[in-house]
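subagent[fold] <- orchestrator: predict structure for attached chain, return tokens only, no commentary.
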Amino acid sequence: METQTVVSPPTNGSSTQAGKILYIDNLKVVLTILVILHHTFITYGAPGGWYYSEKTTLTAASIPMTLFVAINQSFFMGFFFFISAYFTESSYQKKGAARFIADRLKRLGIPLIFYSFLFSPVLSYLVYRFGKGNDITYLQYLGGFHSWIDFGVLWFVAALLLFSLLYARIMLLIKSRPLSLGQVPGVLTIVLFALTLALGSYLVRCVFPVGWVLSPVGFQLGHFVQYIALFALGIVASRGQWLSKLRYKMSKGFAVMVLVMIVVVFPVIYYVKVATNSPVETFNGNGYWQSLMYACWEQFTGIFIITALLGIAKQKWNGQSVLMKKLSRAAFGVYIFHPLVLISLSMLFKTWGVDPAVKLLFVAPLAVFGSFILAHLLLKIPGVKAVI
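subagent[fold] -> orchestrator:
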């Protein structure tokens, strides 16, 4: 296993004890679990697209589900891009352009091909056969299957591969290495950065509202302002070694601000929605003022969470047990294969005559546990281990 290549989730690299960044591996596990829970919540009530869904009709359940996925969406994929980029810089400098590109094509390209041409048809068939009750064989289903380019949850891997190749191209064009920004941004700079992302997201969503997907790669362009910015910021942060300089006190302050955004501001937004009888679509884009309000909440919340997690985890969670090490090693495999576990569990619980919110309580922990077990077992296969 190579060192100093923490790319979350799409590589099997790991931080080193000497580098004292084990908390990044720990955060990677948490983020991967959130991905599983995110899709489970969407399955049983939260807004969003997924292979299969049974939506709860209980308002008391749907509101917290919606809040959960909204909080996740505000930061977790952007955080993945930031962490990935932070270790992209050192990987490129260590390997050189040719080896760096070959490594990315192997570690990111092979999973994309596997998911699109082999895994995605299986997932779709499970839903078609057992979710919708169409009694046909898999071979019969393939006879009418046409969506061969479908990255599913690996849209992130496709975007990361694209970003990495663009980064390598830019580095080849630059004659000298750009100067690093050694000073960690202060509170005001971080707040202004979040505001810039909010305004940028609002403008992009005027054309590409949340939910609009670029086919067949699966990119929701309404979220890509944050993704692109955080990938670029990860490169800058790596050159300035920001993670080693991030102050615990500042991160604790941002944790308090996160609580305010969730406990105070989000209920205000929900009240505005109810009071103005605003459809959900007005918060997704198309130039509505509600979209600007939501973009501000989303980006401020997301950037504050990332800042808080980095500083607090560095101070409090920079050790790693044997279990956490194994979970971290399996994270990319979990990211790839968790749809199979979640969909299978959803099919298993489909006939249970209870509200979907109750099913969530059982399926969510089983999906997390089952996904990590499956990934751990797959990593014992030599060919799989070499890629993920």
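orchestrator: received. Logging for downstream: Confidence is low (pLDDT under 50) at residues 1-8, 10-18. The CA atoms of residues 378 and 384 lie 7 Å apart.
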